[in-house]
Specification:
Blueprint (H helix, E strand, L loop, with lengths): L1 H16 L5 H7 L4 H4 L19 H13 L5 H8 L3 H12 L16
Length: about 110
């Protein structure tokens, strides 16, 4: 019984714990990214530019925030991220993570026992 109650509580609370971004808004905000990362965000213009389609949302958000803060260095990305708000970053990360792509992302799910 305790397990069922805990599972129910986690299901109810989880949307509040991580709201994520708005993928629809992210689609609009990420148009400039296509110049380097490809129109589908799965075929970058060169091998040193990463594929974004299907990447983990939290990883993408952290990478953009790190470029914005300067803790991650890349002159192009630092310039692109400088003008992004926290909501912009969340929206863009939500959009890219939901796109189909060739990345083989392993998603682990933990079961409550």
């Amino acid at each position: 019984m305790k397990t069922v109650m805990l599972a129910a509580l986690l299901c109810i609370a989880s949307p509040f714990a991580y709201a994520g971004g708005d993928a629809g808004a992210g689609a609009q905000k990420s148009k400039a990214c296509a110049a380097c990362h490809g129109a589908d965000f799965d075929t970058p213009v060169s091998a040193d530019i990463p594929v974004l389609a299907g990447q983990h949302e939290d990883y993408l958000a952290r990478a953009l925030a790190d470029y914005k803060s300067g803790s991650r260095k890349n002159p192009v990305m630092s310039g692109q991220a400088a003008a992004l708000s926290a909501q912009d970053i969340a929206d863009i990360a939500a959009y890219f993570s939901g796109l189909p792509g060739k990345l083989k992302v392993i998603r682990l799910h933990r079961l409550v026992q």
